[in-house]
Design brief:
Layout: E1 4-9, H1 13-18, H2 20-25, E2 29-35, H3 39-48, E3 53-55, H4 58-62, E4 69-72, H5 79-88, E5 92-95, H6 103-116, E6 120-122, H7 130-140, E7 147-156, H8 163-170, H9 178-194, E8 198-206, E9 217-224, E10 229-235, E11 257-265, E12 269-270
Parallel strand pairs: 1-2, 1-4, 2-3, 4-5, 5-6, 7-10
Antiparallel strand pairs: 7-11, 8-9, 9-10, 11-12
Length: about 270
């Protein structure tokens, strides 16, 4: 059986942790080329993952006949352009989230893939996370009865002016802040767990750090078409605890990250 030829567009952090190592370990696929507008990024990634070809211009990668699918691991504002070009080149697409900045950009990506007859998938990795899969299994087995409310509290710390803060909330090209970047994960996860679509949304957003271009704190309340409700609490501002136990000072707690949630059902609760 021949291996699936993969091209990775964008060789930054997300490619290194979420795409390249998993392709590299999978015997069914082979990374054929990597591209990045920063030449050194492409060179270093190609060297690390044993890839012979690298490019600065992703269009050169798309011309290769031995590449059947691509991962798009570039900033959000580039997703539509690259996805449309990849579809027109006949490549299947795995695009990092958030899919794009607007509904119109998303629709353009979908239409390009439809016209080209290629698959377009978005990197909602929580659907492949064993813990989140276990929650889905418990719900589907009926062990908590019908879920009526879901709740997620997600927060980490991006110091103002840091590369992460610039990438996710200070660069206007990104199109949105914490709700766009990470809230999308949980909207998708809750849709998956419930097997239902969102009906109504109420949200409030804030800028805790005034210099940021987009929201760094967000709260959203969703009602699904099956009647369930959900709360999303998102932020980029989780500074040090006022009081903390010795346990809380150990990694991973010391790096100021919160991901805590509940699924409430008629017969039980998942925490």
């Amino acid at each position: 059986m021949s291996k699936l030829g993969i091209g990775v567009i964008g060789a930054g952090h997300v490619a290194w942790i979420g795409h390249l190592p998993w392709y590299w370990e999978d015997p069914r696929v082979e990374i054929r080329a990597i591209s990045d507008v920063i030449e050194d990024n492409a060179v270093q990634a190609a060297r690390r993952w044993g890839v012979e070809a690298w490019y600065k211009d992703y269009h050169e990668l798309l011309t290769r006949d031995d590449i059947e699918a691509v991962s798009i691991c570039t900033p959000t504002w580039t997703h539509q352009e690259i996805a449309v070009a990849a579809a027109q080149a006949g490549k299947h697409i795995l695009c990092e989230k958030p899919m794009a900045r607007t509904v119109e950009e998303c629709d353009a990506m979908i239409e390009a893939a439809r016209q080209a007859g290629v698959k377009l998938a978005i990197g909602f990795a929580k659907r492949c996370n064993p813990g989140f899969e276990r929650v889905k299994q418990i719900i589907d087995e009926g062990r908590i009865g019908k879920p009526y409310h879901l709740d997620i509290h997600w927060n980490l710390y991006f110091p103002p002016g840091s590369p992460e803060s610039k990438s996710f909330s200070e660069d206007r090209r990104v199109g949105g802040g914490v709700l766009l970047d990470n809230g999308t994960h949980y909207v998708d996860t809750f849709r998956w767990w419930l097997g239902a679509e969102v009906d109504t949304v109420f949200a409030e957003i804030s800028k805790v750090i005034p210099g940021r271009a987009f929201e760094d704190e967000a709260t959203a309340i969703l009602r699904f078409k099956d009647g369930a409700t959900a709360l999303l609490d998102m932020g980029f501002n989780r500074v040090a605890d006022v009081e903390a136990s010795g346990w809380d000072q150990r990694l991973p707690y010391a790096w100021r990250f919160t991901e805590m949630g509940f699924v409430y059902g008629e017969k039980g609760t998942i925490y």
